[in-house]
Amino acid sequence: MADTSTRRAGEIRHVPLLEPLIGDYEERCRTFGWEQARDLLAGLPDGGLNMAYEAVDRHAAGPLSDVVALRFLDRGVPTAELTYAELRRASDVVAVGLQALGVVPGDRVCTLLQRSPALYLTVLGTLKAGAVYCPLFPAFGPEPVCDRLSLGSVRVLVTDRLSYERKVAPFRARLPHLETVLLVDDDAAPTEGTASWDAMVASATDALDRSSFEIARTRPEQPALLHFTSGTTGRPKAAVHVHEAVVAHHVTAMWALDLRPGDVYWCTADPGWVTGTSYGIIGPLCRGVTVVTDSSDFDARRWYRVLQDQRVTVFYTAPTALRMLMRVGADLAHEHSFPALRHVVSVGEPLNPEAVVWGVEAFGMPVHDTWWQTETGAIMVSNFPGMPIRPGSMGRPVPGITAAVLERGPDGRAAVVDGHVHVLTEPDAVGELALRPGWPSMFRAYLDDPERYAQCFADGWYLSGDLARFDADGYGWFVGRADDVIKSAGHLIGPFEVESALMEHPAVAEVGVIGKPDPLAGEVVKAFVTLRAGYEPTPALQRELITFGRHRLGSVAPREIAFDQALPHTRSGKVMRRLLKARELGLPEGDLSTVEGQP
Ligand code: ATP
Ligand code: MG
After folding, report:
1. What is the atom index within ligand 1 of the atom nearest the CA of 237?
2. Which CATH number characterizes residue 504's domain?
3. Which of 51, 150, 321, 591 is deepest in the core (most CB within 10 A)?
4. CB of 395 sitting under 6 A from ligand 1
5. In sequence order, what DSSP letters do the residues of 432-463 get, joined into one string?
6. What CA–CA distance (Å, rounded) separates 275 from 542?
7. Contact between residue 558 and residue 542 where contact means Cβ atoms under 8 Å apart
8. How far away, in angstroms, is 288 Cα from ligand 1 center?
9. Per-residue pLDDT at 51
10. Dihedral sign, CA of 262, 267, 271, 274?
11. Is residue 220 part of a domain?
């Protein structure tokens, strides 16, 4: 950050906005460096950097102070909103309240809450106090909640009484680090081991009226967020992110999500997942937009109403949600109109070409895919607005990101020979997707697991665990997770390709494919299919789908089709192929903590 040493505390540096990426991708790749992006941030005096300051305070002191920062909806109906100035004050109050509870920099603060003002204020207040914020999915059952509270040595939990009594109180003895549980919207007298959120807010407001609050002067490398991965491939890992990550949140929210002041933005991801934080809170607020958030789950009609009534301009969602909208049909979309909508974006799973194109039918614009991981902290590969989309492709690396595919060894992961890897340069060669470390939002550790962290790197690359290829024009294509790839009669089959082909059949709403051991072929492809409304799971349809697959895919087509009412998903909305496979083979189901619908 330029100039920080000469600024006084509280003084705001007004920074110019970098222009949109549109049109000059190649040029931007040549000229852009993360150092330059750091200069887009305000920064704190003496070289400090704090995510919450970048997201809120600097706007609160500038021309955006009266713009609505957060608007809360309950089943589509607005219930509360906060301007940037109000958000600054309200998050200061929470920071003061946390400090009064003894929270010091480095402590971990967790939420187990639905999307509500208290959740967002806890995130920002925690960062302002210099502590580390860790979200939990509100639908987690007692085991996953306690495991994560314990793994994270969480000191303060903000939740509601029902969740506390069901999911935490019976296990409190297992959680020696958990000093304070703040209960939101709770009129009952505090019980032992709990305190009232409202009372904390009231006394912190008094304290703030009497004296001023100064945001923690966090360093760029100081931990800010702790995020558990989705657990798609096994036991979730806790990725540590630092304040400097905000540089990448800001730049990618600008280039990949195309966010600018004046936008009304809706991200449907739950803040329990990294998307809900990086792009549900920090990134968009950095861009000075109005973030709308709806408190409840998927409902096609309500979702269209929110897009229409809130005049949403940028919409960030997930393939599984898009598939659910597709399942309902485009007619419902056409009962609404979205004149304000400019950009529709997706993340979390491969986005079937079918869904990209369906966006045109439903919204009047294609859906733009983005690829990234909990570990990368921010979008790494994207179909940028203004650039031609290739349906089915993840897009191109964010300027400043070097991505490549590495030759695989027998285990399907990048082969490391004498400490070296081999970068595949021929177009369309399939290998493990790898990134050159050094971008600001890269995770700095898996909590308490240095060995697992070390295994993510080889020969100067971060290894993603996903398989991909890059075409001759530099567009990346997702093939599958290294663990999910199927080997059949000498072919390597990426589940995504098979799933996308089956999605083109009008009866198919969603599909997950696995490899099933076969004495001849090694593995054969089996597909689990959910049907669209109006289709019956008959043997005739089974045969029809097998033939349909064979026409499109040839030898890699599924040999078996099973109909499933609903596929298992993670809470972040991904099809859990490992669970389909374990069930098929009668194997142990492994860590189920992140399965949707699990108690
Ligand atoms: P775990 O690491 O615990 O198994 P997870 O990998 O699903 O879970 P996340 O970090 O939430 O946890 O998800 C990142 C993964 O999601 C990526 O590695 C990739 O497999 C998948 N993914 C995300 N975006 C895309 C996309 N646009 N296309 C294809 N896959 C994607
Ligand atoms: Mg992962």
Report:
1. 3
2. 3.30.300.30
3. 51
4. no
5. EEEE-S--TT---EETT-HHHHHTTEETTEEE
6. 36
7. no
8. 28
9. 98
10. negative
11. yes
**Shortest-distance atom of ligand 1 to CA 274:** 11
Is 354 strand, coil or helix? helix
pLDDT(557) > 60 = yes
Q: Is residue 592 part of a domain?
A: no
ipTM of this predicted structure: 0.99
Residue 258 token pair = 């195309």
Question: Do the domain assignments include residue 377?
Answer: no
Could you list which residues have their CB under 5 Å from ion ligand 2?
229
Q: How far is the CA of 352 from the centre of ligand 2 (A)?
A: 20
Which of 312, 336, 358 represents a domain boundary (last residue)? Answer: 358
What pLDDT is stored for residue 19 in this prediction? 56
How far apart are the CA of 67 and the centre of ligand 1, in A? 34
Asked whether residue 35 is domain-assigned, the answer is: yes
Domain boundary among 296, 325, 358: 358
Q: Establish whether residue 574 lines the binding site of ligand 1, counting it when its CB lies within 6 angstroms of any ligand atom.
A: yes
- d(C-alpha 367, C-alpha 358), whole Å: 8
- Quote the mean pLDDT of the chain: 92
Buried-exposed string 45-68: b where 16+ CB fall within 10 A, e elsewhere:
beebbbbbbbbbbbbbbbebeebb
1 pLDDT exceeds 50? no
How many structural domains are present in the chain? 2
Ligand 1 centre distance from Cα of residue 488 (Å):
24
Whose structure tokens read 């460096």?
33
Task: Report yes or no: 371 and 347 within 8 Å, Cβ to Cβ.
Answer: yes
Cα-trace Rg, the chain: 24
The boundaries of the domain holding residue 290 are 25-358
Number of the ligand 1 atom closest to the C-alpha atom of 465:
18
CA 598, CA 52: separation in Å to the nearest integer? 33
In the chain, the N- to C-terminal Cα span, in Å, equals 47
Q: Encode 528-543: b = buried (16+ Cβ within 10 Å), e = exposed.
A: bbbbbeebeeeeebbe
For residue range 27-51, what is the model confidence (pLDDT) as tens digits?
889 989 998 888 888 899 888 999 9
Ligand nearest to C-alpha 484: 1
Closest ligand to the CA of 572 = 1
Ligand nearest to C-alpha 230 = 1
Instruction: Output the CA 481–ligand 2 centroid distance in Å.
Output: 9
Quick one: average pLDDT of 363-389?
95
